[in-house]
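Moderator note: this is an archived Q&A kept for reference. The question asked for a predicted structure of one protein chain; the sequence and the answer are reproduced below.
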Amino acid sequence: MTAPGTSSTAANTNSTTAKLSTILAHVLLPLTLGFILSSCDQNTQDPNTIVKEPNKTTSSTLTEPALTEALKHYQHAQIHTLHATSSCVEALSSNLDRFLAAPTQLLLNKNQLALQHCLDLYIPVHTLIKNDSNQALQTLTAPLITSVYSTPILPGYVDYLLQYPNSGIVNDITLALSEQSLRGQQGLTDSGEISIGFEVIAFILMGEQRYNQSLAPRPATDFEEPNASRRRQYLTIVVSLLQQDLTALQTVLEDVITRTQQKIQQHSQQAALRTTKNILNTMLIHIEQQSVDSLSMGYWELLKYSAPQDDSSETSSEPSKGSTLATYLKWPQETPDLSHEAFTAQLKASLQRLQ
C-alpha cells in the first residue's frame, strides 16, 4: 500500500476508487444473486481490469427442468387430493341423510368407516400444507385447515361424556345451533374448544370410543327423534361447514399455485432443493409420529402423482407427464414397501441424496 502523506497520492487514490465503484456497479447489476468481494481484493484490484463473473454460480443456477416439473406435479397432487376429499365428504353427507332418516347400528358403523376413509385421504395433504415452506401459502390456508381438522379436541365441549351426561354444545340449549354460532364457538376460550371439522364429526358419530376402544360403541339410538334433535342438527350443520371449508381450501390452493407456477422455474436450484427437503422432512416427522399405513400410502400418492395434460390448450399450466417427485428422487416405479420402517428408510435415503 502507498504511504499516506502526499496530495498526488490521495488524488490517485480517489480516482482509482471512483473507477472501481463504476466497474463494480456495471458488473453486479445483471447478477441475480450478488457476491461479496473481500476487502483485500478491493484494495489490490487494478481499476482498469474488468471483474468477471465466477465460473460457478450455484446459488443463481435456475432449477433443473426435471425438478421444476416434479414440484409442479406435487402441487397438482395436493389439489387432486383435496378434490377427492371433498367428493368423499359429499358422499358421506348423502349417506348420513339416509342414516338420520332411519337410524340403525349398521348404517352408523358404515358412516363411521366412511368418515375415516375421508380423513385418511385428507390427513397427508393437511400435514404438508400446514408445514409448507411457502409462508404466504401458510398465512392464507391456516384459518381453513384449522377449521377442517384440529386435534386434540375437548370432547366434552362437543357432546356428552359418560361421566358428564349433560355436557357439550349438543346439550347446551341456550346456544342456538347455526353455522354462525358453531364457527363462533371454535376456540372460544381455549385451543381445545373445537366445534367444527373432521374430528368433531368423528366424535359425534363414535362417542368416547373414538379415543378409548375398550368402551362400548355409540348406540344408533343417540340419533333417534325426538330426544336427539340437537345432535342430529349439529351433525348436519358441521358436515355442511366441512364441505364449505374444503372447497374454500381447494380454491385458495389453486389460486396460489396459479400465481406461483410460472415462478418455479425461475427459482434457484438451491431454493427448489430446500422446498423438496422440506416436503420430505415433513413426511418423515409425521411418519415417525404416527405408524399408520394410511399416512404413508397418502404420501406415496402425492409423490407419484402425475397431473394430466390438458391437450385442449397450448398455454395450459398443467405439467406434462414426466418427472414426478417419486421419479426425481429415484423411488421404485412400482408401489414401494409402505410399512413404517421401509417408508422411513426411503425418505431418509432421499434426503441423503439431496445433500
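Archived answer notes: Residues 161 and 167 are 7 Å apart (CA to CA).
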